[in-house]
Amino acid sequence: MKILLVEDDKTIASGLDYSLQQDQFSTILCYDVESAKKIIQEQLNDISLCLFDLSLPDGSGYELCKLVKERADVPVIFLTAVDDEVNVVMGLDMGADDYITKPFRIRELLSRIKSVLRRYQKHSQSNSMIELGDVRINLLEGKVYKHGEEVVLTALEYRLLLVFANHLGQVMSRNQLLEQIWDVAGDFVNDNTLTVYIKRLREKLEDDPQSPTIIKTIRGLGYKVGD
């Protein structure tokens, strides 16, 4: 997932940029409104979330938020050094999804980012298909299609696929996957069983299960679906 970060304090910006990348996000870093506007106009379709400092040398995060919300349904979080109710309310009224006051802990910011992304993911998936390359998941029907043909999955295989789909672009450890699927079918799911289900999913969904492009193995960390 790609985050647009706009922060004029280069020390803060560098630290945030590094921390976001360490947490498996890709980033686009801007220091002013002018350069951020260019990115919004040219690359907004590729951006999953925006982090805007309110106070910028050539404008404010408000105008960037307005520009984003006019063009796409992309979440915006404000970074502000002004713990002022009027500023906060103004930002939220303009469509911002959250704000965080400096100084803040990076773990708190990451938690806020993931919370906002989860809300957007649930909203966007409520009445739509999830697409993973040539694979489509119809949430309303509870069915999966590849090249337009239905792929029959067991309840646990379907649940495992949904876990991946709900965490697109995120590396999921084996423990995280086990925590979310172990009791779905009322059966005990251990580490070996998880390996079997991932293998079965790949056999049903991948063009070449030996060289998977949908469910990718991230060596030493786990698995990832999506960029």
TrEMBL record:
Keywords: DNA-binding, Phosphoprotein, Transcription, Transcription regulation, Two-component regulatory system. The keyword Phosphoprotein applies. Residues 127-227 form the OmpR/PhoB-type domain. InterPro entries: CheY-like_superfamily (IPR011006), OmpR/PhoB-type_DNA-bd (IPR001867), Sig_transdc_resp-reg_receiver (IPR001789), WalR-like (IPR039420), WH-like_DNA-bd_sf (IPR036388). The modification 4-aspartylphosphate is found at residue 53. Residues 2-117 form the Response regulatory domain. Residues 127-227 bind DNA. PROSITE patterns: OMPR_PHOB (PS51755), RESPONSE_REGULATORY (PS50110). CDD domains: REC_OmpR, trans_reg_C. This is Response regulator transcription factor.
